[in-house]
Amino acid sequence: MADFAGRVVILTGATGGFGRAAARYFADAGARLVISDLGSDRLDALAQDLGGETIALSGDITDSQLSERLVEKALAQFGQLDIAINNAGIVHEMAPLPKTPVDVARRIIDVDLMGVFYAMRAQLPALEQRFRDTGETGAIVNVASVAGVVGAPMLSVYSAAKHGVVGLTKSAALEYARRGVRVNALCPSFARTPMAEDFLDKAGKDRDAAEAALVQAIPMRRLAEVDEVIAGLVFLADPASSFVTGQTLQIDGGLSAA
Ligand SMILES: NC(=O)c1ccc[n+]([C@@H]2O[C@H](COP(=O)([O-])OP(=O)(O)OC[C@H]3O[C@@H](n4cnc5c(N)ncnc54)[C@H](O)[C@@H]3O)[C@@H](O)[C@H]2O)c1
Fold first, then answer.
1. Which of 40, 1, 143 is nearest to 24 (CA)?
2. 18 Cβ inside 6 Å of ligand 1
3. Backbone phi, then psi, for 242, in 5-degree steps?
4. By alpha-carbon position, which residue is closest to atom 28 of ligand 1?
5. What is 8-189+225-247's CATH number?
6. CB of 195 sitting under 6 A from ligand 1
7. Domain locations in the chain as residue ranges
8. Per-residue pLDDT at 204 exceeds 80
9. 158 catalytic, yes or no?
10. Tens digits of per-residue pLDDT, 144-182?
11. What gap in Å lies between CA 145 and CA 75, rounded to an integer?
């Protein structure tokens, strides 16, 4: 297990599939957490479950002030910010581009792309300030998707939003390469989380066929397990990965190598 003792970590989408697993990992590794998600009940229950030094602040990531409040909380409660995991996200139902409703497309861009922009806009100055004050470097991990690296037929707007996240990641990494902040993007293919289960359930009686079709595109012919994705997330966040910035890490069973 990597050592995150005393590190202060902001984590969004904390009650989801990847979020819960990441929260548990960081808490067990000694980090102090500021967790966020939409609903306060599940979030408060998670904070209680994690125990130790965890603060919960619920809200919608499309509200830019939420990101500012999360950074303020970290600084007020713990006096520092070391790591931010921008993980909150949504996916739309599969549809050809011309059949994707405009309001759905706008919401996807708002949550998946603007949400990460607001988050980094608030986090980067705080991480840079810590570096100036103490020499401690910080890290941002944006949870994008393999659909942010290669095209995703029937998921065009999701793919566009995640490509946008990769663009934000690489650009911020270049801006902050000598300012004490590493910025990387995690790019998983489908993994067994509530998002993926819900997505497959919407295929109705064709659920098994939908899963088989998804898996067919993956050289390893299976979905990812959550822990396999969290291993990559931890690698990017780990202070030991001190020369890794501006990268996309595909955890995709070989999909993007084809
Ligand atoms: N599961 C996969 O197969 C997969 C693959 C590639 C990328 N991803 C990405 O991983 C991230 C986490 O996904 P997951 O699979 O854990 O999904 P999930 O649905 O289990 O969790 C996502 C979390 O984000 C929260 N969220 C959604 N909209 C929000 C908003 N507007 N404001 C605040 N929080 C919001 C949800 O409440 C949820 O708890 C997402 O960014 C997703 O796009 C997932």
1. 1
2. yes
3. -70, -10
4. 89
5. 3.40.50.720
6. yes
7. 8-189+225-247, 190-223
8. no
9. yes
10. 999 999 999 999 999 999 999 999 999 999 999 999 999
11. 30
